[in-house]
Automatic annotation (TrEMBL):
Residue ranges crossing the lipid bilayer per the database entry: none
Organism lineage string: Bacteria, Pseudomonadati, Pseudomonadota, Gammaproteobacteria, Moraxellales
Residues annotated as domain GST N-terminal: 1-81
Residue span, GST C-terminal domain: 86-207
Source organism of the structure: Acinetobacter larvae
Name by which UniProt lists this protein: Glutathione S-transferase
Length: 207
């Protein structure tokens, strides 16, 4: 049984929990991070020098960085249906997983800290507006991709890319600001919400 270190309301921890649910991977989760056990202590730093969650421990193997974790789990626990071994199919999935981490995440950061977290360090309304615009631009890219596939991010089949982007879409839906009309994203959100694992760890009211 793998150990997952991280609080369950973290979007990055929820990626791992959702994948474990999809692949029926037994796990034990431990509360680490804000409000729980500190990630700044030596015990945690030995596992992840960045002091961030999640971290997994699988026997004598430990790993940090959520997207690396879900790739590892798919490889290790018969997740080829979600993360195919064929190089071009895998590359398409990796492209969108990395896009979510680099482009999409960075676009929403300031807006979410202001609108959802109410951070006193994120009160510059001009920067909030820029973040919302960048976020909307990124979501327009996703909208165009979903218009092409008419289903999931990379095609007809649910994949690892949908775990990371599905959580991002849920955050988009729940963050309170005026949004452009994106019908294919709305359809995608409804499609994902038919999955029990998404309702448990993704579309579960947490943002």
């Amino acid at each position: 049984m793998i150990r997952i270190l991280g609080r369950s309301n973290s979007i990055n921890v929820r990626k791992v929990l959702w994948l474990c649910e999809e692949l029926n991977i037994p796990f034990q989760r431990e509360d680490w991070g804000k409000g729980f056990q500190s990630t700044q202590g030596e015990e945690f730093i030995q596992l992840n020098p960045n002091a961030t969650i999640p971290v997994i421990i699988d026997g004598d193997f430990s790993l940090w960085q959520s997207n690396s974790i879900i790739r590892y789990l798919a490889n290790q626990y018969q997740g080829q249906a979600l993360y195919p071994t064929q190089p071009q199919q895998r590359a398409r999935i990796d492209q969108w997983v990395d896009w979510q981490a680099i482009e999409l995440n960075n676009s929403w950061s300031y807006a979410v800290m202001h609108l959802v977290r109410h951070s006193p360090l994120h009160q510059d309304l001009e920067l909030v507006a820029k973040s919302i615009q960048a976020w909307s631009n990124s979501m327009a890219i996703l909208e165009a991709q979903l218009e092409k596939t008419q289903a999931y991010v990379v095609g007809d089949c649910f994949s690892l890319a949908d775990i990371v982007i599905g959580l991002s879409v849920q955050r988009w839906m729940l963050t309170p600001f005026e949004k452009p009309e994106l019908p294919y994203i709305a359809d995608y959100y409804a499609l994902l919400s038919q999955r029990a694992a998404y309702l448990k760890w993704g579309n579960n009211g947490q943002n």
